[in-house]
Amino acid sequence: MKKIARAHTNIALIKYWGKADAKLRLPLMSSLSMTLDKFYSDTYLEKTDGPNTFILNGELQSNSTKDRVFKYLELLKNKYGITDNLIVNSINHVPTAAGLASSSSAFAALAAAFCNYYELDLSKKELSRLARLGSGSASRSIYGGFAVWNKGTSDESSYAYALEEHPQMDLHLIAVELNAQPKKLSSTKGMQLAQTSPFFKPWIDRNDLELKDMESAIHADDFTKLGSLAELNASEMHAVNSTAVPGFTYFEPDTIKAIKLVQNLREQGIECYYTIDAGPNVKVLCQLRNIKNIVKAFETSFNNVNIVVASFGSGISYLDR
Ligand code: ADP
Ligand code: DP6
Ligand code: CO
């Protein structure tokens, strides 16, 4: 019986932002993430006599969203000698292309759905490599908890592994959806432009140290260290964007307002840190005891924003259709 593949999104605490090889999606840095429980993609495949088809959230896709999926399908089909045309049916329980990591859950779920459909018996490591070819961040969504994507130097050596699949750490992520509309500049394009920044080399050079520090914060169960390092790493990523030639930013006025709110909360003794990906939305890292106060502060400062309180999610799973 063919299954639905479910993959959760992951948010990087040490970010992937730069490629050594665009086609193979080999990164210039290793990254470390937290898989989330509240955001995920469910994907399943069907054979068709017609052309390849992509249905997202019940709607037939006809734009660039579809081109990227078809390109990836062709890659999978060529790799495993499959000639069928396929219908990809997917539901995103996450805003699509808004900087909330939809590509991480999407391509992990698609890779897993493909392997399930054709009964390919891949190890987690092989599945991570396969997902990476669809979207780099998807390599990490194979696993729950904390995952590390070791950059590697080749298709064979670039994959993610679980650092801790079921962490006991008191760590929560409040996603503040300031603008859930699809972004104009994809992550793929953004990270390519970022390479023109004079700070791009220092950004890469700091990766070894930042990753090592983050791993030791996790092992020491040190929330303060984890949060500060994550906030610094995200700020560095956005600094290379604003100093690229030409400069650009994913921030919107509300993004700055949210950053200031996090800083104010901290001054008041409510410990929290932000991280931001390729989009205007802000994720706040905190501990259980502060969730209520932080959510209240965001609700007071912003009208009608969707706020989702997440914690650790699980790795790839398969559901009956
Ligand atoms: P995000 O910040 O959401 O990860 P990206 O620019 O990295 O944004 O990737 C968004 C792209 O991922 C979409 O334009 C689409 O091509 C692809 N995508 C998103 N959700 C799905 C899905 N459920 N199935 C297949 N592809 C998807
Ligand atoms: C800022 O994995 O979306 O979220 O490999 O080109 O698909 P592609 O990029 P993608 O980039 C993610 C960028 C990020 C940081 C991260 O998740 O590590
Ligand atoms: Co993405």
Automatic annotation (TrEMBL):
UniProt cross-references to SUPFAM superfamilies, sorted A to Z: GHMP Kinase, C-terminal domain, Ribosomal protein S5 domain 2-like
Catalytic EC class: lyase
Domain of life: Bacteria
Keywords: ATP-binding, Lipid biosynthesis, Lipid metabolism, Lyase, Nucleotide-binding
EC number, UniProt record: 4.1.1.33
Pfam families listed in its UniProt record: MDD_C, MVD-like_N
InterPro entries: GHMP_kinase_C_sf (IPR036554), Mev_decarb (IPR005935), Mev_diP_decarb (IPR029765), MVD-like_N (IPR053859), Mvd1_C (IPR041431), Ribosomal_Su5_D2-typ_SF (IPR020568), Ribsml_uS5_D2-typ_fold_subgr (IPR014721)
All copies of domain Diphosphomevalonate decarboxylase-like N-terminal, residue ranges: 7-160
Mvd1 C-terminal domain residues: 178-305
Family that this chain belongs to: Belongs to the diphosphomevalonate decarboxylase family.
Name listed for the protein in its UniProt record: diphosphomevalonate decarboxylase
